[in-house]
Write a structure and sequence with these properties.
Radius of gyration: 21 Å
Mean pLDDT: 92
Low-confidence stretches: 341-348
Number of strands: 12
Bound molecules: iron/sulfur cluster
Largest sheet: 10 strands, mixed
Structural class: alpha/beta
Distance between the termini: 36 Å
CATH class of the largest domain: Alpha Beta
Helix content: 25-40%
Strand content: 15-25%
Number of helices: 12
Strand order of the largest sheet: 1-2-3-4-7-8-9-10-11-12
CATH topology of the largest domain: TIM Barrel
CATH superfamily of the largest domain: Aldolase class I
Order of helices and strands: HHHEEEEEHEHEHEHEHHEHEHEH
Shape: elongated
């Protein structure tokens, strides 16, 4: 919900200004799904709101739940008919939401189902922050306990190619008057749009930044992530060093281990060399993720191959974690979000 619409509505209808606070509480604290549930408001006002304002900017098409993990995935239909997906997951004790920032994605990474569906359009800040509000309502309705604690921009799209709306959405998500998730609990994952790092450090110095690296060899990386031709590893490094200098924050290096493709000894050596060449290399933390079969020739990578990779990297003095991939049985894991449109195409 774009709360500015509520402020305008209250003014236009000549309602007392305290109604703004009541509506805010009903939407963000009570997590109402429709205006009938806003029982602190008079019936006449509820009827008016129902007629004029939607709480969410999209409709729910389907919600799937994983049989293996605490993961839910929703397919949402935007007002213009485009589809996006968003994921709710509980990797530890708290709920995290994975949001999409674009319908589709223009970057076409080789291992990613979203990339294969092409680019439809950028999402508005309202459509982005509403994904968090949507799961906030879901948790409340299903009595799943706890609120959403973390938000990751790892869904459909490249967040730094929709910079203005993403920054606006993060301000709403982190505003204590609205959803109120601290910026240190919000992460942006980028394929390496390095010319935005400096601005990001100024605009949102508290958030977490994750770089999808997946290969530390420029030629090989560009085959996986074509935008690597525009922003090569040297450019990414220069801009990341500046980002780290300005924020003092740890940066996460995401590396999907694709067995036989990017986990050979030469890959490990190059990755170790690249990370150790940073001035503040101790502020880089590698997250290894086992490949999920989404598209193309990639096959699932076994735990043993990922562990071997992690051990070898640790031997070069690098901070490494193995991230558990969740929700692959409902195509909700990294690189698997594609939306209904792509699913339909695949069926043809
Ligand atoms: S991995 Fe991210 S940046 Fe690459 S195509 Fe998929 S959504 Fe786009």
């Amino acid at each position: 919900m774009d709360f500015e619409k509520i402020k305008k509505f209250v003014k236009e209808k000549n309602l007392p200004s305290y109604r703004i606070g009541q509506i805010r509480k009903a939407v963000y604290e009570s997590a109402i799904e429709n205006w009938d549930e806003a029982t602190t408001l008079p019936a006449s006002l509820r009827a008016l709101l129902k007629k004029e304002i939607n709480i969410l900017s999209f409709k729910t098409e389907v919600i799937q739940s994983s049989k293996r993990d605490a993961v839910f995935k929703a397919l949402l239909k935007l007002a213009d008919g485009n589809f996006i997906e968003t994921v709710l997951m509980k990797p530890a004790k708290t709920w995290s939401v994975c949001v999409s920032s674009q319908a589709g994605c223009p970057l076409g990474c080789a291992f990613c189902a979203t990339g294969k569906m092409g680019f439809k359009r950028n999402l508005t800040s309202e459509e982005i922050s509403d994904q968090v509000l949507f799961w906030h309502q879901f948790i409340s309705k299903k009595k799943l306990g706890e609120r959403v604690s973390n938000v990751v921009f790892m869904g459909m799209g490249e967040p730094l190619l929709n910079y203005v709306e993403v920054v606006k959405a993060i301000k709403t998500i982190s505003d204590p008057d609205f959803i109120g998730i601290g910026q240190r609990h919000i992460s942006i994952s980028t394929a390496g749009i390095a010319d935005k790092f400096f601005k990001l450090a100024h605009d949102l110095p508290q958030i977490n930044l994750a770089l999808s690296l997946h290969n530390a060899d420029d030629n090989e990386r560009s085959r996986l992530i074509p935008v690597g031709k525009k922003f090569n590893l040297e450019t990414i490094k220069e801009n990341l060093e500046e980002y780290i200098k300005l924020t003092g924050r740890e940066v996460f290096i995401e590396y999907t281990v694709i067995d036989g493709l990017n986990n050979l000894p030469a890959h490990i050596r190059k990755l170790g060399k690249w990370i150790n060449s940073f001035k503040d290399h101790y502020l880089l933390h590698v997250n290894l993720i086992a490949c999920n079969p989404a598209v193309g020739k990639a096959t699932a990578t076994g735990d043993a191959a990922v562990k071997k990779f992690a051990d070898a990297l640790r031997g070069t003095n690098i901070n490494v974690s193995i991230r558990k991939s969740m929700g692959s049985d409902i195509s909700a894991a990294c690189g698997q979000l594609a939306g209904k449109i792509y699913s339909n195409r695949r069926k043809k």
